[in-house]
Amino acid sequence: MSSEPAQASSTVPPHPEQQPDGVPPAAAAAAAAAAKEAAHEQAAHEQAAHEQVITPWDVQGGVTEDGKQQAIDYEKLILQFGTRRIEPELLERF
Q: What spans are recorded as compositionally biased (Low complexity) (predicted)?
């Protein structure tokens, strides 16, 4: 283990013994708490309303402005990917 202070880019606050000179542990703890809260608010903002996402690796329904999850919109998929609707006759075959 190193006795050097943690890098500034770390989200984990440094150990109280590793505080830079002149910074009281209480101030460092308050700064760490403020940074954690800011990160939480940013994450919540990033999860705000968005359209559905359909890729080969990810399938997500949309999210409304009030944060409610929406179902996958089949009609939108047909238009987005230029495909045809699956007819009941085809479903019966399988």
A: 26-36
